[in-house]
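Record type: monomer structure entry
Structure origin: computed from sequence
Chain ID: A
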Amino acid sequence: MLIPSIDLRGGRVVQLVQGRRQALAFDDVSEWVERFSGFPRVQLIDIDGALRTGTNEALARSICARVPCRVGGGVRDVACARQWLDAGATEVIVGSSLYAAGGVNERFAAELADAVGLDRTIGAGDSAGGHVVVRGCQDRVRVTTEDAAWTPKA
């Protein structure tokens, strides 16, 4: 299945290369929502939320009201995940909070899956150089891409 992505930064739709260099930016968010409205699901990422430099929450909520979205970028706890699902997100995407200093934060992953449902939880494994990168692809962690393919224990 093809899932198009809308990445938000500063109230605009952007494309970043490895979370650093902005390749594209568009002011007309509605145009992109309309373009992707025929897809069964859209991935919606708040880059500012991921980088902890701000939020595009109001804009993201308005997009969730228009198209089915899986939402990520700044989802750091169960309460935030629930808020996004209550706002209409079909699933939540967690990245940075999923990785502890030494590996996958299995406790948080299990807590989140128990609270909102495994079927509504997506673990992001952005990578660079064979390792997982977090905080909007800014920081590399010791977890390899292979180790990031974690499955919760039954």
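Annotation 1: The chain is about 25% helix and 30% strand.
Annotation 2: The first strand starts at residue 5 and ends at 9.
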